[in-house]
Amino acid sequence: PNTVYLKDYKSFGYLVDQVHLTFDLSPNATRVTSRIAFSPNPETEDRSFFLHGEKLRLIRAAIDGTAVSPEITAEGLRVAAPDAPFVWEAEVEIDPANNTALEGLYMSNGMYCTQCEAEGFRKITYYPDRPDVMSTFTVRINGDLPVLLSNGNPVQRGEGWAEWHDPWPKPAYLFALVAGDLVAHSDSFTTISGKSVDLNLWVRPGDEHKCAFGMEALKKSMKWDEDTYGREYDLDVFNIVAVDDFNMGAMENKGLNIFNSSCVLASPDTSTDANFERIEAIIAHEYFHNWTGNRITCRDWFQLCLKEGLTVFRDSQFTSDMRSAPVKRITDVIDLRARQFPEDNGPLSHPVRPESFQEINNFYTATVYEKGAEVIGMLKRLVGDAAYAEALDLYFARHDGQACTIEDWLKVFEDVTGRDLSQFKRWYSQSGTPRLKVEEEFSEGTYTLTLTQHTDPTPGQPDKQPQVIPVAVGLLSPNGDEVVPTRVLEMTEGTQSFTFEGLAAKPVPSILRDFSAPVIVERETDTAERAFLLAHDTDPFHRWEAGRALARETLVEMATGDATPLPDYLDGIRTLLRDKSLDPAYRALMLGLPGQSELAGHLHEAGITPDPAAIWIAVEDLKQALARDLQDMLPDIYAEAQVDAPYAPDAEQSGKRALGAAALDLISRLDGGKQAAAQYEAADNMTLQLSALGCLLGAETGDAQLAAFYDQWKDDRLVIDKWFMLQIMKAKPDRAAAVAKALTEHPDFTWKTPNRFRAVFGALAGNHAGFHDSSGAGYDLLADWLIRLDPLNPQTTARMCTAFQTWKRYDAGRQEMIAAQLDRIAATPDLSRDAGEMISRIRG
Ligand code: HT7
Ligand code: ZN
């Protein structure tokens, strides 16, 4: 397979001055007629004219009105073109109804829709399908459907046709078309300069009642981007469409965002608090792309983090502002450790800006997105808020309408601050998670912290250079007072010492406050110090971190011996839970335990082969111990967590329900599910209904409620996804694969819909002990289904292959079984480039 390299970048020989497209829609034979004005690109002398095109039937092609016969391959066409401005015309036929890969133009429930990022436009017509080729688009859609949408502003519409014009030059990956029988939930927004924008959320008839929350989230996002970044919306309309068949969460097409219906549709009776929060964040994310991604786009796909890291960073800021900043920071770190750390420290490790790929779809990763956002957070911390704001203003002013690189991005910071960011740039080129060893010394009132950084070798990068690491540190005196408030230590060397003078006694350090860098802190410390920080740290993130470290310590001891839970941990949690001055959401996070996969990672790093079954037992035992230990307080906490007001998915109510759910989980271990059954009966929203059902399944007493839940929700596809998922997540380890297998035989297992496939196999992979059950049944089942899905939908198949990425952590028996499955997948005839690349990288 062909590997593409960053170092080989060359600009295209022509500029695209204008694009006109006409679509004659028909399920199996849609005609796409293109008229494209090209002119020579003054930046290069290379006039070779290659247009990308895949799975297209070319009917005719002409240059300046004269028919031409291009040379056609599986990747595109080549033809001699003038060294002067010219008009290219082509007519192609495509088959949207049989497009199961969900890239290009495809159909979902009778509706036409598109997905062009990263390289899907080439499945619609012949075009220089690369992000640095930007142009204005005019689109005419002919089709006998009530709603016909494309990017930009509506120009004209008649019976069976509509015309759209997008005045903002854009790359083809932001093209979109939607046509179908849809209904709109409409509203409007007046921008800061007084322009009125029509807002529509288009859904299938029957889903109208699930639109209000998404629309509010959109308006909040528009306002926030004006207030925070000075970014105003730039078209007369903003359309969002909900689609059931979608490979990812959502797509930021200019003026016409397309969303996986699970990421936009919400109602209190069908969606959980977590769903609402995620929807708000994704709507914000896609909206923010209008400036960071669309107005300023990427020069090539290696620069993906330019738009994704920045937009994730912006959507995190938005959520912090709308909800609780500490809770958002903690949940982001939990997510980073669960998804990005295993990637960065395993066979799929790659830099935030990768240097090569076979299939770009495989690089929409937690590293590019979430580590990319952390890198921006570090930059902001290093230069300060005012310089960050100035740099962003300069970025928008200097690069509006351009396709940019990470060099352009860093240059605005250099120009604003006068700093040299060449060492900082290693965050973009060096893969792997840096480890920070901490040593301390105290003498005569001076406290010295010596930090040493080290990054293990990663694929293709045996040697690492020191990175710039902002380490936020605070110091506490032995009586619990903060003697040195948060200070950012700027580490640039391999080993570096920092001193704090004038201290009366040896302080207790609080290191990496607010998770100021995506690194692993390695420090010899003891249980007592962690308990002290859990009680006294003023930094909410680091206080939580101290509790997390205690939980991890006790679980590691329990999973590797016959230890009992640490009294320091139980006492610390008890004290915190009792503290009603703390936000309920924060207390709920304190009650949470590290994920089982994360624990397996810790054991592996400590040189101990993790036993998934032993980890599962340790977690169950610790929960049982917590339940017994907190027995006297749980009813109070549960009562405190009840909400009297009508349901609202806001931070305050969601926090209470999260605390209630954490308490119910423990209560169910003592009462066999009695309280959960009562909550299930009384529930008037999905958050309470689902958390109760989860507890009942955990207590193995939920069969009746599970059946009732199905009956109640069998016509709601998004709720039925939850029904599939929950059963597998809650299955005992030795039953998980069997439960998943039985569910694949259920008539509602519509496996070609990615949401349903992910509901089953995402849940199986997420049930750590179940997936890694020593029978190997989990591995076998997943491999069977990956092989089955690949010919239809390579992108979703490739993503799901990541379930195997941590395989080298486990014992020889498990490794042998996984290797056999990886080899079986690799040997599948006609395996897609997507899955082929993933499997070969994972196999190593
Ligand atoms: N920019 C988008 C990334 C994307 C995508 C979305 C949906 C389907 C397939 C896709 N391939 C790439 C999503 C985002 O980051 O906003
Ligand atoms: Zn994005």
From TrEMBL:
Its EC number is 3.4.11.2. Residues 213-427 form the Peptidase M1 membrane alanine aminopeptidase domain. Pfam families: DUF3458, DUF3458_C, Peptidase_M1, Peptidase_M1_N. Keywords: Aminopeptidase, Hydrolase, Metal-binding, Metalloprotease, Protease, Zinc. Residues 528-842 form the Peptidase M1 alanyl aminopeptidase C-terminal domain. Residues 432-523 form the Peptidase M1 alanyl aminopeptidase Ig-like fold domain. It catalyses: Release of an N-terminal amino acid, Xaa-|-Yaa- from a peptide, amide or arylamide. Xaa is preferably Ala, but may be most amino acids including Pro (slow action). When a terminal hydrophobic residue is followed by a prolyl residue, the two may be released as an intact Xaa-Pro dipeptide. Its cofactor is Zn(2+). The keyword Zinc applies. Belongs to the peptidase M1 family. This is Aminopeptidase N. It comes from Antarcticimicrobium luteum.
